């Protein structure tokens, strides 16, 4: 038996399986691939696989090695992509007829049988094992027809070679299909892990929520126990405190609900328009608090980017409120913008009390706050909004010197 033939078969086998293996590895280890992209990648992998198989067919054994060209077609039908299976079958037939000068009547009948079998399997809900077994029977029939009825001169070496090729073909096909099943299990496991992580986050968030609400309710209960309606002055004082605590609880619940219902609708935004709007909303408040608000506008340059106007305005206002609260009398807050590589930076800088390393580390965590009446959800909510814009919320701060917040958005 010619060893060069075996080498050619092995080379062809590597070329046809490599794109499929790349697809399997990519899908298993990349978590952010959706179903549409997955289908596109599978289509590319199977077309590439067939192309490489046809491209490097050795001329002296083309009719035998053409058997491997069935692998992408079988996989296409197995993954319920019958249009792709038909397309690959047509490519195989045309290439065999026009390039390899092979009679293709038998091939056409065989691929029509594949399609008919697929339609029957889908209608009767046949298992993948039954479908593969049926494909094997059809393939065996056409191989027998080609090499024992049509070709009269079949040597022992040809027969042994045919058996080896058939064995390699079925072994490869079943191995690839097994890997697809493993991939499905890994995907299912990843989905389960994500759901468990999501459930854990929800439980943690609810635990923190109940803890945060419990504190103001406990204060209210304490003052209700202490209240004496005969002492009107103290009673009014206690009632005002209870109102404040109830409002704080409502704010916590409102922020928590909003945090879990973030929806972003992107449109073209004029940066100058957005920052002008925010500046006009805040300059009176800052003036009343004797804080200087500086705004470095970019009237000389029009900058447009995709984003949710109201959500981004909400983020900037939240950061400005924090900056305002961090500043003492005669403090300063500065709003500016900058283009950085492929990003647009909106910068808010203050000379307030700043943050220590512990605060800076936990600033984006839900319910983390250093304010007496804070909910600890403002920055966390802002961070989620910016993340939904594929951006980043960056903090740099130094205690007693001030804080700089960078809203970095794709541009």
Short description:
This protein is of the alpha+beta class and about 400 residues long.
How would you portray this structure in words?
α1 (3-29) packs antiparallel against α2 (35-55), α2 (35-55) runs parallel beside α5 (82-98) and α5 (82-98) runs antiparallel to α6 (105-124). The longest helix is centred in the middle third of the chain and has 71 residues, at 156-226. With 411 residues, this protein is of the alpha+beta class. The radius of gyration is 34 Å and the shape is elongated. Helix content is 66%, strand content 11%. The strands form two sheets. A five-stranded mixed beta sheet has the order 2-4-5-7-6. A two-stranded antiparallel sheet has the order 1-3. The protein folds into three domains: 3-194, no CATH class; 203-259, Helix Hairpins (Orthogonal Bundle), CATH 1.10.287; 267-410, Heat Shock Protein 90. The chain is built from 13 helices and seven strands. The chain has helices at residues 3-29, 35-55, 62-65, 70-78, 82-98, 105-124, 128-150, 156-226, 232-259, 271-288, 309-326, 357-362, 378-388, and strands at 267-270, 292-295, 304-307, 332-340, 343-350, 392-398, 402-410.
Identify the notable features of this structure and list them briefly.
about 400 residues, alpha+beta, Helix Hairpins, Heat Shock Protein 90, 3 domains, 7 strands, about 65% helix
What is the CA-CA span between the terminal residues? 63 Å
Number of domains: 3
The total count of helices amounts to 13
Enumerate the spans where pLDDT stays under 50 for 5 or more consecutive residues.
none
Task: Based on Cα principal axes, name the global outline.
Answer: elongated
Strand content: 5-15%
| Largest beta-sheet characterization | 5 strands, mixed
The helix content is: 55-70%
Number of strands: 7
Radius of gyration: 34 Å
